[in-house]
């Protein structure tokens, strides 16, 4: 799916709370993962950015497997864009960030021309985008700002106004995303 044509920034949807919707089917009782919430957020948060949106999977992050992470990695590696935003559930965002960092994304590894120069930022939300007072708009806007301002290739998690290296990100018992080296 493309927004504003072939975009300068690739946004990859994986699911998670950010994409959850109220039940869409009669008799359903739990939130369901819907289309990429970023499609609703971009006109509000970054109307002039040129982005391409692709959906890799639509899962609760607790259901994301290493096979899904490999699909995410392949999408990042194959992308023409150097700037990649990944929307992800917050429960396992640290594991996916670490998976991509260990695979060498943004570290000059020999995947092909320019892959080692990519900047990848993962973000998500604690409340679904469809809910009042969701943190989704802020986190997407913040992550897009981080993505464009970064000069160092690599993998990062941008949540709640904090930026942490994908290789060292952890989530503490209070739900804050921190650098494990600073704990």
UniProtKB/TrEMBL annotation:
PROSITE patterns: ASN_GLN_ASE_3
Active-site residues, record numbering mapped to chain: 17 (o-isoaspartyl threonine intermediate)
L-asparaginase N-terminal domain sequence ranges: 9-172
GO molecular function, one term: asparaginase activity
Sites where the protein binds substrate: 61, 90-91
InterPro entries registered for this protein in UniProt: Asp/glu_Ase-like_sf (IPR036152), Asparaginase/glutaminase-like (IPR006034), L-asparaginase_N (IPR027474), L-asparaginase_N_sf (IPR037152)
Database matches in Pfam families: Asparaginase
Protein name, as recorded: Uncharacterized protein LOC106058798
Organism: Biomphalaria glabrata (Bloodfluke planorb)
Gene: 106058798
